[in-house]
Amino acid sequence: MSASDEDMGPNALITYHLHANSQNLLRVDPTTGVITTNTNFDYERIQEFDFFVLAMDQGHPKNSATATVRIYVEDINDEPPKFTQTSYTFGTFENQPKGTVIGPLSATDADSYPYNHFTFSLNSNDTFQINPETGVISTRKILDREQQSGYYLVARVANTMAPYLSSTASVTVYIADRNDNAPRIIFPTEGNDTIEVSARVPTGYILSRVIATDSDLGNNAKLTYSIAKGNEEQIFDIDPNNGAVSVQRDLTGSEIRDNHRILLMVQDMGEPRKSAAAHMLIHVNRTKAFVDWMDKHITLEDDPDSQSGILGYHQKILIILSGVTIVVVVILIMAIIYIKRRQVRGHPEQRDSYKYMSRMAGQQNGTGTEGEKKAVQFDLVQTGYMSTGMSAPLGGTKSKEKQVRHIVGCEAETSSMI
Ligand SMILES: [Ca+2]
Ligand SMILES: [Ca+2]
Ligand SMILES: [Ca+2]
Ligand SMILES: [Ca+2]
Hints:
The structure is a single chain. This protein is of the alpha+beta class. The protein folds into 4 domains: 9-72, Sandwich (Immunoglobulin-like); 82-176, Cadherins (Immunoglobulin-like, Sandwich); 184-298, Cadherins (Immunoglobulin-like, Sandwich); 348-417, no CATH class. It contains 4 helices and 25 strands. It has a 4-stranded mixed β-sheet with strand order 7-14-13-10, with no helix packed on it. Strands 16-23-22-19 form a 4-stranded mixed β-sheet, with no helix packed on it. Strands 1-4-5 form a 3-stranded antiparallel β-sheet, with no helix packed on it. The chain is elongated, with a radius of gyration of 54 Å. The model is unreliable at 296-312 and 349-418 (pLDDT under 50). The structure holds calcium ion (4 copies). One calcium ion binds at residues 179, 181, 214, 216, 220-221, 268, 270, 274. One calcium ion (CA) binds next to loops.
């Protein structure tokens, strides 16, 4: 700032001052009038502002003049472009042509033109592309949900001018299912399609199960089962939900053919419905007994010979088990009796100890002398020790001492003399 005064001396000595409301932003050198900033100016907060400078002389009275100054703040590229969301989630159907739009990303940059110009990009990806200007994501190829049901991408938005500030956002793309897969029948298949069943099978018996899969999702993979052909006589039935093939009629009748070739149909619930079919050959065996291996249950009511044979087998097992149990119990009882007797006969000291115990009982009843009581104690120490079957002298080891003391202690507790 510069001001002039036509007076002379102090009357022309000019000092510069700022208005109080701008002093936190700026300062002015009182003598030179040079204005400097007190703070950083942010173009994104304030683009221009006015302030007043006072030029005052030192005369009497002091004369002054005021000038209005306007400051324009210039922008620089100090703001990065930012996505309006930190993450984006999109969904799209599989099997659509390449170039199908997934969705747009959006971003803002607080700078002014041209520092607010930015472009979009995706992390290296051969499945999706993004329009650098509009931020619209689209496919680069046909997607297959059965191959990959979701994609996780990183999108970047960057300024096109130095210092090329940028930011990122995560993008998730879910691939929705279309019913593009027919069910696949794993059983029966050509070469593995024959079931043999006894003619004596009860009605309702499940003789086989159709096994099928569908690699789609939800209703597109929900399967229903039916018999499409070869079951005009209603001999068989199939559970529409699980594919269990059951027998619905008595197969022993002469009107029932030996061989049946039924066409099984598996359909999904998709739109449009897709299906698969397979033949099952069922051979009715009239000589074979019915054995339900699944339940380990044998029903041979129609075959008395076999029935008696089976029952005889069960009875034999029962008899053998009972006999073995009785023999084991008898042996155990005899062994216990033998061991008890041998213990008493084989250890005269133990017999003696029983004798002393009887004498001790007499002492406790007050029938023995003082000397006898002491002798009893000693005897008990001896016999107590010896009854353990050890041959080491008294006090040989701690465990022996312990055992002896135990016997003495028992006596002491019951004898008022000790
Ligand atoms: Ca910027
Ligand atoms: Ca800026
Ligand atoms: Ca399907
Ligand atoms: Ca599919």
